[in-house]
Amino acid sequence: MRRPNVPADAVHRRGDAPPGIRVALIASSFAPFVGGVEEHVARVAEQLQARGDEVEVWTVDRGERTRSARSFGVRYLPTPLPARSARDLVRFAVRAPGALSKWARAVREFHPDVLSVQCFGPNGLYALGLHRRYGVPLVVTSHGETLGDDNGVYARSALLRRGLRDAVVAASAVTAPSEYVLADLRARFGLRGGVVIPNGVGSAPVIGRVERRDNLFVAVGRLGRMKGFDLLIDAFVEADLPDAELEIIGDGPERAVLQEQIDRADVGGRVRMAGQGTAEVVAARMAAATAVVVPSRSEAFGIVALEAWRGGAPLVMTSRGGAAEFVRDAEDGLLVDPTDRQGLASAMRRILRDETLRRTLATNGRARLPEFEWARIAESYARLFRGTVGAERAT
Predict the structure, then answer these.
(1) CATH number belonging to the domain at 22-200+373-394, selected among 3.40.50.720, 3.40.50.2000, 3.40.50.300, 3.30.1360.120
(2) What is the DSSP letter of 372?
(3) Is the previous residue joined to 295 through a cis bond, with omega within 30 degrees of 0?
(4) pTM of the prediction?
(5) pLDDT for 346-359, tens place per residue?
(6) What's the pLDDT score for residue 19?
(7) Where are the domains of the chain?
């Protein structure tokens, strides 16, 4: 039975098991911005489209857009939110009607069968509003935004906390890349159940031939506190490996602080802040690395682990978070608590000195890659979306 508040043109009915459905992937961020969520959404969209579904990405309009050719449509939509100051409330009152009109138009023009929120932020609040207004089934995917937020958005925003709680209750399904993330949603946001759909990894960028080095540690990621690069620098100093080098690839708010830490430790000749790297640069450095180290204080999943496996690099991985659910200690990676400086230093010494261990970790890691192909990840979403739509149409 169609819900009474759904306009006649807002939901397509093509039988209980349609060969293709319309999916709106509602992302907190998208290209031209670069990151794990942006990559995840783009790859899932491509795979669903290739399967015969119709897909659009709806994302927060942050003032920058991309015109690159894609197999799916992208809408950049405004997401003003109310705030406490009188000036901000007035600004919201002025902007909100136009924003709501654009979101409603997206529903009328695309006719989504399911609203899939990817990383809950202002995008999630607007998606929840569409679900309530039109009755389109809602699926929420958390990417660890409640756990790994350096800016403390969830700690500061009662609106986001309440919205996520309401969305979790209203959603037909909730997914996350790890049980670690789902456990937080259960403990703090009222989730019951939940489904793990891991992140994926695609083919490596094309690079020239690169020689593997025997003295180079590489770390990659946004330079924020949660990523733990300060812990890695301390552990590298503690390891006392005079012939080894550490290269940190990435950019972010902690860059100057990390450089000061390097200067104070007087290891500037052996620890290098390489800045933001392209996909090709990252792949080339991983191909050269003796080992890739992921020292995060909290990691919802750990896409860098998959990239290390793809690049044939041995992996030293944080045990704090979702990676401990798929990385097998001493088989395809070394799991270490990065807040244990001596423990992390010991792991770095061990992997540098044990060539047999490095070969084992790299070989076993690369063998795991088929588990994380994007086609397989998209298939998990497709089954979930079809089940959601089928259940809705059966009521």
Answers:
(1) 3.40.50.2000
(2) G
(3) no
(4) 0.90
(5) 999 999 999 999 99
(6) 66
(7) 22-200+373-394, 216-371
